[in-house]
Write a structure and sequence with these properties.
The protein is 44% helix and 30% strand. It contains 2 helices and 7 strands. The strands form 2 sheets. Strands 1, 2, 3 and 6 form a 4-stranded antiparallel β-sheet that branches. The chain has a 3-stranded antiparallel β-sheet with strand order 5-4-7, with no helix packed on it.
Length: 193
C-alpha cells in the first residue's frame, strides 16, 4: 500500500510540475506579447508626438492653441504688458537723456524757523542738497553758530550718501539759541564714487 501511495504522490507531483510548466509557457508568450505591445505603444506615442509637432510646425500654431480669435482677457493682458514694457523703456530713456555729468555741488540750508529746544539744548534742522549730477559720498558739513557775545559753537555733520539732484535732512545741536545768533553752514568735503 505504501508503494501505491508513493506512486500516486509521484504522479501527482509530476502532474503539478507539468501543469506549472504549461502555465509558465502560456504566461511567457503573453508577457512577450504584452511587452511587444507596450513597446509598440511607446513607439506609437512617440511617433504620434512627432506627428503632432510636425503638424504644429506646418501650421505655425501649437496643437493645444485655440484656433479662434483672442479673448478680451488676452487682449487686456497684452495691452497691460505692452504698457509696462514701454513705460520702462521711457523711464530709462528719460534718465539717460536728463542725467548730468556735473560734479557734486553741495549746498547747505539751515532751517532757523524750525529750530526747537529740548532740555538745555537747541536743535537746528539743516537741509543738505546736491545740485550736481554725480553722487557724493560721506559728505561732511560744518554748521557754525556765532552768539551775541561773540562765542562760536561748531557742529559737524556727515551725510553718507547724497545722490545727484538729491537732498537729505540733518540736525545740528547747539547750547545757545541759533535764532538769536549768526549761523554759517557749508560743505567741508565729500568722496567721489
Amino acid at each position: 500500500m505504501a508503494t501505491q501511495i508513493r506512486v500516486a504522490e509521484a504522479t501527482t507531483s509530476a502532474s503539478l510540475t507539468a501543469g506549472r510548466k504549461q502555465t509558465q509557457e502560456r504566461a511567457t508568450p503573453q508577457k512577450q506579447r504584452a511587452s511587444t505591445r507596450a513597446g509598440r505603444d511607446d513607439t506609437d506615442q512617440s511617433d504620434g508626438r512627432s506627428q503632432d509637432s510636425q503638424q504644429a510646425q506646418r501650421s505655425g500654431k501649437p496643437r493645444d492653441a485655440s484656433s479662434g480669435p483672442r479673448s478680451t482677457a488676452e487682449w487686456i493682458t497684452l495691452l497691460i504688458s505692452s504698457l509696462i514694457v514701454l513705460g520702462l523703456i521711457g523711464v530709462t530713456t528719460y534718465f539717460y537723456a536728463t542725467g548730468s555729468d556735473a560734479p557734486a555741488m553741495v549746498e547747505v540750508e539751515p532751517r532757523l524757523s524750525e529750530t526747537y529746544q529740548a532740555g538745555h539744548r537747541f536743535y537746528l534742522p539743516v537741509t543738505v542738497r546736491n545740485s550736481g549730477g554725480l553722487t557724493g559720498e560721506d559728505v561732511r558739513v560744518q554748521v557754525t553758530l556765532t552768539g551775541q557775545d561773540g562765542r562760536q559753537e561748531t557742529a559737524n555733520l556727515m551725510v553718507q550718501f547724497l545722490a545727484g539732484g538729491g537732498s537729505s535732512r540733518a540736525v545740528a545741536v547747539f547750547g545757545n539759541d541759533p535764532r538769536t545768533g549768526q549761523v554759517e553752514a557749508g560743505a567741508v568735503s565729500y568722496l567721489e564714487p
